Amino acid sequence: MEWMAWTVPTALFFSAVVLMLIGMTIWQVASPTLERRGFLPIATTRGDRLFIGLLTSAYIHLAWLGLTDYNLWWASAISLLWIIVLMRWG
After folding, report:
1. Domain ranges in the chain?
2. What's the confidence (pLDDT) of residue 66?
3. For burial by CB atoms within 10 Å, which of 40, 45, 54, 88 has the most?
4. Quick one: pLDDT at residue 3?
């Protein structure tokens, strides 16, 4: 994979995504989810909130790379906090 410019934060981000998908699959099989309303303007399930969280986390990382010169770890920390908030109260 030398042709790809993988950094440690990028590899950890995608590894975390894979682990979250595995964890959510196990959680869904063990305890099926029901739709609920939080601060999002639509009724969502756990899977919906995870998808929205992962998508916005990718946008956070892209914006971070494009707009700042700061370390990518900050974008990862913001994304983690965002997913926690979204999964709990979204």
Report:
1. 8-89
2. 93
3. 54
4. 67
Helices 72-89, 8-30: inter-axial angle, 10-degree rounding: 20
Q: Which two tokens stand for residue 73?
A: 């770890």
Tokens for 79, please give them: 């994304």
Give every residue of the chain whose pLDDT is below 70, as ranges: 1-4
- pLDDT digit string, tens, across residues 42-63: 999 998 998 999 899 999 999 9
The first and second tokens of residue 82, run together, are 């965002």
In order of 2, 7, 16, 52, 66, the CA distances from 84 in angstroms are 33, 24, 13, 12, 24
Determine the Cα–Cα distance for residues 24 and 29; give it in Å rounded to an integer: 9
* Distance in angstroms (rounded) separating the CA atoms of residues 70 and 90: 28
